[in-house]
Design brief:
heterodimer; A: 78 residues; mainly alpha; Non-ribosomal Peptide Synthetase Peptidyl Carrier Protein, Chain A; 4 helices; 51% helix; B: 470 residues; alpha/beta; Rossmann fold; GMP Synthetase, Chain A, domain 3; nine-stranded mixed β-sheet; seven-stranded mixed β-sheet; 13 helices; 28% helix; 25% strand; globular; disordered N terminus
Chain lengths: 78, 470
């Protein structure tokens, strides 16, 4: 369990100001979140919450809202 | 060679009859006979005389048909990415003034160039007879520089690839790279050579759509640049069903040793053959390969030359180096060496094809004839798979009025704005770059410096820039 906000994780991994991270932020809609950044994001999430994401979850992780949903399945409070 | 007596790979497609040429994501299947008919149909929409065209590429049937039609009709085409930044495309169109443009949906736009350009001495018949296609090496900075490739280049490299990968009509390759990229195109050409199947895909391996298509079509091979492999490793893709895969290829830059070793191991366990390949667009695509037996034991090698090709090493004076371990510039000879570079329309007229390709890579050979790349002669780097010549990149920014010097290494570019007053608007520069660069801005750092850092002998100390942004 960790108390780091998922928004902070996204802001750090995508090099965005925290104010620009919201639930609707989605993969490939901004230049900062391309496939390269996606790998960094996955690594950041895994490190922060000490989990290993399944392949299907990495593919499904297409928005902040989706990430919250997925992390629930790993018993992570975000 | 498997295709030696069958003519060129792009001709007589109907010789493969009902074999599947193309599988599409909507489930449709196109046989070689059908592909042949589509190509004949398309040729009627193209100019009847030998003029230059542009083809905007996506991995779809319309583009494949258009490409084959242009090759069959002897119309040279510049292959460009669909969705290319408007101003860059405009600039290329201004430099080369093509007579037609084919959009990625197969629409043909004809331009009435003959009247418009009657003032220059560029006429249809004057273009070099061997010129087949033109490809960019960077695609990044809007440099009009293109690599000119011949029909013979394409045919010869496709044949060599068929031979060393051992391809036959039972292969099914899923496209993972762009059509306008020499590596991506080489997958297309080699598979068409033997009547094999192309699964036309545009999605990243980090997408559900890709894996749905993968499961539905069961490809026998996949190609990837280092970034593709990093993504696959991160996805832990070895844990899923890859049953149909017979082999995978990697090219487009050096894969880091740990990723390479990891793939050699997991693919080996699954009995999926792993080929690590070396090449350049200037050599059509491939120059060397490291076969499955060698990947694990000689991970740092680029392997041996492809069938029909050969390497030599030259010292800075052009003298041939013959001893194993001696370092020099890697020189390649083979029928796949380009016709030359084009920077303007005039360059398409009088070609002076190089006798060999000076790769710009520094290399040495071992006692068993394997080659090892150990550096670059110039300041060329790869940023997320995109080749960037830092001198060219720096010059591109300078001509736009930015007083900059640039340094870099793999996946990293440092731009220093040299200004005493330090009033340059870094935000404007960052926005300018973000709109134009083909790779993520995460690779780019911009710093302000009052003057250029110099080495003891007065040269620009580019290495210093990298140290400043550690």
């Amino acid at each position: 369990m960790s108390s780091t906000s998922i928004y902070e994780v996204f802001a750090k991994a995508l090099a965005l100001p925290l104010s620009e991270v919201s639930d609707v932020l989605a993969y490939n809609t901004i230049s900062q979140w391309d496939s390269t950044a996606h790998l960094g994001l996955v690594a950041e999430i895994e490190e922060t919450y000490q989990i290993l994401l399944e392949m299907d979850d990495i593919l499904e992780l297409s928005s902040v809202a989706k990430a919250k949903e997925i992390l629930l399945r790993y018993d992570v409070t975000v | 060679m498997a295709t030696a007596n069958r003519g060129n790979f792009y001709e007589h497609l109907d010789r493969f009859g009902d074999q599947f040429a193309v599988l599409l994501s909507d489930g449709s299947i196109v046989s070689y006979s059908q592909l042949h008919n589509c190509v004949q149909e398309f040729r009627r929409r193209l100019p009847a005389t030998r003029v230059l065209g542009c083809l905007l590429c996506r991995n779809n049937l319309a583009v494949l048909v258009a490409y084959l039609a242009c090759l069959q009709s002897g119309l040279p085409v510049i292959l460009l990415p669909d969705g290319m930044y408007g101003q860059l495309l405009q600039k290329l169109l201004e430099v080369y003034r093509p007579s037609f443009l084919i959009k990625a949906d197969g629409t043909v736009e004809l331009y009435d160039r003959l009247v418009q350009n009657s003032d220059d001495n560029f006429s249809c018949g004057a273009m070099h007879a061997e010129l087949a296609i033109m490809l960019s090496t960077s695609g990044s900075t809007g440099s009009p520089k293109q690599v000119m490739l011949s029909y013979r280049n394409l045919q010869s490299n496709a044949g060599a690839i068929v031979e060393y990968l051992g391809l036959d009509a039972s292969e099914k390759a899923i496209t993972t790279l762009p059509f306008h990229y020499s590596y991506g195109l080489s997958v297309v050409n080699s598979h068409l050579s033997v009547g094999a199947t192309l699964i036309l895909n545009n999605d990243s391996v980090i997408s559900r759509a890709f894996w749905q298509l993968f499961d539905a079509t069961r490809p026998t091979s996949m190609a990837g640049v280092p970034h593709t492999y990093e993504m696959l490793q991160k996805l832990r893709f070895h844990q899923r069903d890859l049953g149909s895969l017979r082999y995978m290829t990697q090219a487009g830059g050096k894969l880091s040793a740990d990723v390479l070793t990891w793939f050699a191991k997991v693919l080996g366990q699954k009995q999926i053959r792993f080929f690590v390949m070396y090449g350049q667009t200037e050599a059509t695509a491939r120059m060397a390969y490291l076969g499955p037996g060698d990947v694990a034991a000689h991970a740092d090698s680029i392997g041996r030359p492809i069938p029909g090709g050969s390497f030599e090493l030259h010292d800075p004076d052009g003298k041939l180096l013959t001893e194993p371990g001696e370092r020099g510039e890697l020189i390649y000879r083979g029928a796949n060496v380009m016709l030359g570079y084009a920077r303007s329309r005039q360059d398409l007229l009088a070609l002076n094809p190089p006798e060999y390709l000076a790769t710009g890579d520094l290399a040495y050979a071992d006692n068993d004839g394997r080659f090892y790349v150990c550096g670059r002669k110039d300041r060329t780097i790869k940023v997320f798979g995109h080749r960037i010549d830092l001198d060219e990149f720096q010059g591109w920014l300078q001509t736009q009025g930015w007083p900059v010097i640039c340094a870099g290494e793999t996946d990293r570019v440092v731009i220093a704005v040299i200004q005493k007053e330090q009033n340059a608007d870094v935000q404007v520069l960052l926005k300018h770059l973000a709109d134009r660069l083909p790779f993520s801005m995460k690779a780019v750092s911009v710093i302000l410096l009052p003057e250029e850092p110099k080495t003891d002998n007065g040269k620009i100390a580019y290495g210093e820039l990298l140290r400043l942004v550690a």
